[in-house]
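As noted in the main text, all predictions were made from sequence alone. Below is one such record, for DUF3068 domain-containing protein.
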Amino acid sequence: MSSEPSPVPQSPVEQSAPRRWSTADLAGPTLIFVGSFLIAVTIALPTLLVGTFRTIPLSTDFTTVATAEKATILDRCSLATPAARTLDADLVRQQRVVAVQPSDEHRVTLQAGTSVQAETLRIGDRTVEPEDPRPGSDADADSSAACNDATVNAVKDRVTLDRETAEPQLSARGASEIQYDSNQAPVLVPDRRGFTYLLPFDTSLTDHEFFDVVTRTTVPLEYDGNTEVVGKDVARFRAEVPATDLARAAFGRPVGTDVVITRPASWFGIDGPRRDLTATLRHRSSWDLAVDARTGTIVDAKITVDEFYAFPDGTPGVPADFRLPHLQANFTYDETTQSEMSRLASDLATPITIWGRIVPIATGVLGVLALVVGGFLINPAWLPARFRRTDRESRETASHSD
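Prediction:
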């Protein structure tokens, strides 16, 4: 009989030797960890990071230009002539809005300077420059504010806003003050409410409130459907500012204008006995705003202004419908402003789109794939039969090679 060799006994050290983890063993847990991390990132990005992009930037700084052709203005030089005179004019309304101090992570203070300038004037059939001499201009030639200054009016507004809601935040050092005359102190507006220069991110398509700087009043800002500006879908809002007497107490005086005028009745064109009459400046306007609802940016605006002098009700010998125009104009953002404001809206929306939509979708898809693959690697029984055979054969081949 042939004797078979007895198996060589293994030493206790060889029997208890720990199995070393291979790269294949670590792949599954690593993918599950990576997948879990990516899913967490997918959830966190829209709720944590993107929220910081939905606030008024501390770097806010933009300029808008609106033009009005065939406007009507009162010739201030006619204050020194026997009769009031109005002129046809082409006007430019320029406004710069910039973030200033105090500003922090919760609030931002905006300073807006707005001016209306005359580009050309028409007297009869002649076109003249605003600075050209005309009847009455020699009366105040030495004045620092000559009547033939091109500036029709100007105003500086300063208001602190909540960076999320874009509403005035007038407590904790916040303030609202409006300066109508560079030679007079600003007028404080402690009860200011409503939007003026921008609206909040994700503006709701409902009615809001609008604050008018000239009259210092808050009026409804009504949603009026959608429209398109420079290829961008935007929401329309309308505000109507009723006729308001600008001579009311503590109002201040707009630059270059007289809120109260006292002149002979004949100067106003009113017949009757010789006497002096006093008229006050009234203002009414309408605002048609095109707003990018995602960012609250006003990308287009049509502003109708009607300012006129009128007498108190019941003034003897004065027609009830008497109006002396001071400024009548229809301002519209020019094409450059529409394009720049549309570009600003896109720049503000881009980070929200990238980090709030594109990146979360990518990380979500990659996270799910990593979890699925990691699960299959940890538990090969989940794999289809043909893949399990391949996996078993690869392990046997690896063991034989050892």
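Residues 130 and 233 are 39 Å apart (CA to CA). The two ends are 34 Å apart (CA to CA). These features were considered when defining construct boundaries for the mutagenesis experiments described in Section 2.9.
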